[in-house]
Specification:
single chain; 306 residues; alpha+beta; Glutaredoxin; four-stranded antiparallel β-sheet; 9 strands; 45% helix; disordered C terminus
Length: 306
Amino acid sequence: MRKLLSGTLLATLLASAAVAAEPGECPVFTQGKQIQVLNYVRSRYEFTSSTNLRVVSSELLSDSCYRKLVLSVDKPASRTFPIYLSEDGNYLIPVLLDLNTDPEEEKRIVARQVSRALLSDPSPSLGGADRPVTIVEFSDFQCPYCRRFSDMFESLAQAQKDKVRLIFKEYPLQMHKWARRAAELAACSGLQRDRAFWDADRFFFRSQKEITSENIDSKFTEFAKTDAEIDVNGLNGCLAAHAADAVLNRDAALANSLSVTGTPTVFVDGRRVTVRTLNELSDLIDTAEARALGQHTSAAGNIPSR
């Protein structure tokens, strides 16, 4: 029955799309239909009752009775998203693909929007803003896969590193017992200077197997006393004032707005990617550099993140 319904629905949508509709023939988007849409979306996507979900705009697509709705939510972060209402008003379509558009141009537009969001706040970075490729990583110091990505980046040839600006975003996972504390310590180091942050970054990943929630403060303090970039008194003052909370909360809100749910989550010039090997990372950098120079090449490693 489900297969029959799906086939019937597909045939109906295809047939109706082939016939241009006059605006006067299209169903009116009534208040009752709006309430029905919002109730369905709230239930389907599990928005809580405290989330402010509303329809921001409604417009008919050209030469059809398909209706594009733009919805907004305020939690966990403010954002808008489109959803489409079928011509008969009985079906919601999350994605409507227009064959008359260039999918690569759409990707570029989305990537530019994501890049603006990723670069809107200051974060620890390696490499200047003039480098052709920008990699933004949401990371967790207790995450073994994040350590692997850090090792891969360190293993890049210097010529590859010189192409890249690497930006770090804090995203400690609740499942990791000492990740939040590590993020606070690293953020407080970074508020002193970027080089202090990267020294903390290297310490946590290299000491990952020895650190526990019980010894993290003592181990990091011992390390900080030997590190020329970290001022221990300033570090303690930052921790006492909970100054790192603003950094972590800001990065968490950004992660939520981009649907980041795990670590490492990596963006290359605004495009979310999955990197499993050093070769994939190298290929991604080369492809992004070529794209930045206006060339169009493909990289085997440019695989959408799961």
